[in-house]
Amino acid sequence: MRDDIERLLDRLVHASVVERVVISVAALFAAILVGGVLVFVSGGFASCRAGLDLAGATFCYNPMQVYYELFLGSLGHPLGGDWTPMNYSLATTLRQTTLLIFAGLSVAVAFRAGLFNIGTQGQLIVGGMLTAVTVLFAASYVPGGFVGTALLVPIGVLAGAVGGGFYGAIPGALKAYANANEVITTIMLNFIAIGVTSTLLSWRFQDPDSANPQTRPVPEYAEIPNLPFVGFSGRMDFSLLALGFAIALMIAVAWLLARTSFGYELRTSGTQPEAAAYGGVDEKRMTVASMTLSGALGGVAGAFWVLMQHGYWLENVPPLGFDGIAVSILAGNNPLGVGFAALLFGILSSGANSINTATDVPPELVGILSGLIILFVAMPEFFRMIGRRYVDVGDPAPVRADGGEADD
């Protein structure tokens, strides 16, 4: 039995990119099939005026309609006659995708360094608040219009990266110099981030003109601009420039990890720490640097959440950092794969809203459907991670320096 499990893990660990894509697609279809059965059966216990009568029972929910709304509703129903690519549903999908690319990259960088950063949410919160406060302060010294946009947007994003990076460096230093478990410290720092930012908001930065716990809005020219003529409406809280920046950053992180000495040291310290130490890699420095970079990416997510979606920082921050963990696992911690995983999450999030609007399916059941899809698609990558980390699979037999087989 153990040999069979090891052979299966070995197959997963050494699967090619094409094989992994095929496995993910097969898992997606399996999740749709299981979810469809669940929706259909659940409809037999619901009350409705019209439905499918079968064997003396009335089934209220139509799985085909549910999946139509889930996948095509998230795009604004492209099969409809009056469809336009600049619709609100597609903007919602791409907005969620953009933010989750940043959050997923944050978690993926830490994973590649052998660290489990559960603190992306806290780093996002800190980075978002520092963005709002910095932009509000700098706006007093910067002219408006195009010049203000060109100066304040980069300043705000940089402030978010600095805030998130600093907050990520804290658990990195604790791990490196005190051997504190980064899982525990990042979880605790999430709660600290919520408490500290809420206190600062009520003490100094609360908008006096709003009853909601939020900062004053940043100037309109300090928000992420959209592309003229081909962009979405400003009321949709999404910018194609933000998505373009997220894709560029995704490619840059992939290049950093694959083509630079820093990326090599980061990956080696995560997969083979003994070999990295033997090769002269400073493990403590790399731990702090990796968590700092991871936190900076989380802070960038907070910056775009403020400057693109809201225009101000508010206390009720959505769990983008925790979703980033699932995005990273789904992508196999591959920076380029993070984009596709984030798009799937964006579709599920926007499609769930479409289901709630167009059908009588309860939101709890919609959440179960989304969870099933994520679970089925992510499990093969999860087992690949287990195989790489905990099981000695696929290792070649030891050899002597002259190429012969080593003696036992």
UniProtKB/TrEMBL annotation:
Subcellular location: Cell membrane
PANTHER family: ABC TRANSPORTER, PERMEASE PROTEIN, GUANOSINE ABC TRANSPORTER PERMEASE PROTEIN NUPP
Signal sequence extent: none
One GO CC term, this protein: plasma membrane
Keywords (A to Z) from UniProt: Cell membrane, Membrane, Transmembrane, Transmembrane helix
Organism: Natronococcus pandeyae
Transmembrane segments: 21-46, 97-118, 124-142, 149-170, 182-203, 238-258, 288-308, 320-345, 365-383
GO molecular function: transmembrane transporter activity
Main location group: membrane
Topology versus the membrane: Multi-pass membrane protein
Protein name according to UniProt: Ribose ABC transporter permease
